[in-house]
Amino acid sequence: MMAQTAQVIVDVATRQTDQPYDYAIPETLADQVEPGVRVIVPFGRRKLQGFVVGLSDTAAFDGKLKAIEQVLDLTPVLDPELLALSKWVATTTFSFWIATMQTMLPAAMRAKYDRTLTWTADEKPADGWGQALFRHARTVPYPDTLTAAQTRQLRAWVKADQLTVDYIVHNRAKAKTQKAVKLAPGKALTSAAAPKNAKAQQKLLTGLQTKPFTGVLTQPVAAARYGVSVATVRLAEKAGWLQSTTVNIRRNPLAIRPERDQPKRLTADQQQAADQFVAAVAAKTPQTFLLEGVTGSGKTEVYLQTIQAALDDGRTALMLVPEIALTPQMVHRVLARFGDAVAVLHSGLSDGEKFDEWRRIQRGEARIVVGARSAVFAPLANIGVIIIDEEHETSYKQDEAPRYHARNVALHRAKTFHCPVILGSATPSLESRARAEKGVYTLVRLPERINDRPLPPVHIIDMRKNSGARVQPDFSPELVAALENTLAKHEQSVLLLNRRGYSAQAMCRNCGWIARCPNCDISLTVHRAARKLVCHYCGHEEPIPTRCPVCNSDKIRFFGTGTEKVEDTLQKILPTARILRMDADSTRKKGGHARILNAFGKGQADILLGTQMIAKGLDFPTVTLVGVINADTALGMPDFRASERTFQLLTQVAGRAGRGSKPGSVIIQTYNPDHYAIQLAARQDYEGFFRREMRLRHQGKYPPYYYTVLLTISAPSETVTAQESYRIAGDLKPLLSQTAIVLGPTPRSITRINNRYYYQILVKFKKEPALGRGLHNLLTNSQALLKNKVQVAIDFEPQQIM
Ligand code: ADP
Ligand code: ZN
Ligand code: ZN
């Protein structure tokens, strides 16, 4: 029986509309409407894009149904697996279903709406502004700026049935096309078809007769094939010898196509790991492995050989990396092994390029996907293995709605596809390591570096002793000596400036005034090169003042350590050193990371100075010295993961030294030389850190012993924010068992951002089956929240608690 009703999720992200709506399927569209296609439907007075999520032959709604107006896709953009996944993600992350579907698709598929005005009455406005507006056409774009009087006028016309406002939904998801030609059927191509003296045309005619082609050629390819110009091909089209057509072409997202490499002979440890992974691929077991391998232990080669096994089995592979821009070498290695079978999804691509890559995956042309967080939704069928490299990285968790963790999504997809998941890291998250301890994940270790290269010796420098008039505050004599030494040997150094919660500020030395953001409770950051003060939360910018706005003194000074300032100092200490700086500013332009890393890799600089970005994935055999300027800044953060983050960062960055044949060394400057996170990172002792930190988490009732849910309540008024927060906490407590712990409400450490106030409630629990549903109901049914412009964000297992 033919379905008559479609269930559609419309493009309005509110709790009230977060449910499928029934629409009638007109006869003419009956064969096109199926689950997973995008449609355009009327919704109230508007027209909206929506997704068909189901079909039925009876409508729950017994009134007259509105009908679907248009079907946007010829084939579903979400196959049944992805459609089910979108629903699962929405439920488990407390997000709107429409938001998860949009997150799963390339941005080009997101609806863009335009409004138009159409004059419908016979007589156009005779004079004034209306006459000018409709002078050339009856339908015009909705004006960008309207005065109140003009708006009133428009409303009057609408009321009088003289004018309509229409919403046009644009489908931006278009393939890029190029002009092409095919042979015109039944056309006699003799030399008489063109003038005798038209040499090029005669040449083309002869070519078409002696060397005809089948199918379609783009104009330039056709021209090249017959040794004529594109202009001649166009003439041939005009003459009717060739028919013009278009072909879809692929925007080329990767300028570099590295040379192919061959699988390496695995070491015994690597082999033993790969054997287990390959066996799970073959057996189709949705087993999760935790590959704990020290930096430089050859995890990547194991990934690549496991991917090969999945391909050999006729299946596909998904590989997630923290951030492509920061891990170009990893992408390079996958491309070198698998070439064109790889699709790369990363934030540096334009919307069009992303859309092209997405289609190559959907059509089965790309069987390996490498990408950052959102690539976990890649439309791969028949997945044989999912790999998550650097699985501890926080970037796998999206910190805005939908707040999904790519690892959880991967585990869910693996269950559907019956395939293994490999989580790899030198410093696994405590959550994953604890699961391996309990046997939920299978622990596989690579304890040695490739070729028995020793881990570099680490020297901890106590910066409390680095005082006195003659010393540089950011550079201990030991670090300076090591940098000089490395420079003298013509080797390279990497210097990490840990900037989390740390930046340069403008202060008045006379009265202590500090430049603050007018919209947020945070001080402004000095950007010296651009001569600006910038708010890193709301984007507010202002010039650096020359006089204090409070006391009018001209003693405005900068303090705090920005990368630019450290670069200045460093250049003064080492005048001959060639320094490359890598931070948010120097990498803002497209391809900025790659450019800097390339230059450094080619030996065009002696020192790479950068923020956290340099800690990851770099594999430069020429680096023999790694220095950490300030190991402590992350330790001071009011977050229970502060030690874990510090340990991870220091271990990762220390692993950058001595990866080649020359031995390396590491210098860590700190004000907390005895802190266990720093001590254990210096020894690269992950297991020691894990045991120690687990005891503390147990005492503090934190993950992985407890689950956490963070509610963030915000409103333009602080009183309302506080009131609603207390009300929600009050409503929440009866839903919870005795073992759950509710912390707060408390104002967030940065209470005001962009003129909204933020309060938080943290719930810690072991098992609360009713919590999800309860939270959902509490928010859906709350009219008070709606009325008072209150927003509530729910974050399950938040990565940042501040
Ligand atoms: P990890 O990802 O564990 O930090 P990598 O995969 O970057 O380690 O490997 C470190 C280095 O060792 C790389 O330069 C890699 O090419 C090399 N390597 C890996 N496996 C082998 C092997 N089996 N034989 C020789 N060299 C290898
Ligand atoms: Zn002042
Ligand atoms: Zn601000």
The major sheet is characterized as:
7 strands, parallel
Unreliable segments of 5+ consecutive residues: none
Q: For the record, what is the CATH homologous superfamily label of the largest domain?
A: P-loop containing nucleotide triphosphate hydrolases
How is the largest sheet built, in terms of strand order?
14-15-13-16-17-12-18
Could you please say which CATH topology of the largest domain applies here? Rossmann fold
Query: Count of helices?
Result: 22
Describe the protein.
- The strands form eight sheets. Strands 14-15-13-16-17-12-18 form a seven-stranded parallel β-sheet, with helices on both faces.
- It folds into seven domains: 5-108, 3-Layer(aba) Sandwich (GIY-YIG endonuclease), CATH 3.40.1440; 113-169, no CATH class; 177-248; 268-447, Rossmann fold; 458-499 and 563-696, P-loop containing nucleotide triphosphate hydrolases (Rossmann fold, 3-Layer(aba) Sandwich); 504-559, no CATH class; 707-796, Ribosomal protein S10 (Alpha-Beta Plaits), CATH 3.30.70.600.
- Helices cover 30% and strands 23% of the residues.
- It is globular.
- Helix 17 runs parallel beside helix 18.
- The mean pLDDT is 86.
- It is of the alpha/beta class and 802 residues long.
- It contains 22 helices and 33 strands.
- The longest helix is centred in the middle third of the chain and has 16 residues, at 268-283.
- Adenosine-5'-diphosphate is lined by residues 264-267, 270, 293, 295-301, 450, 619.
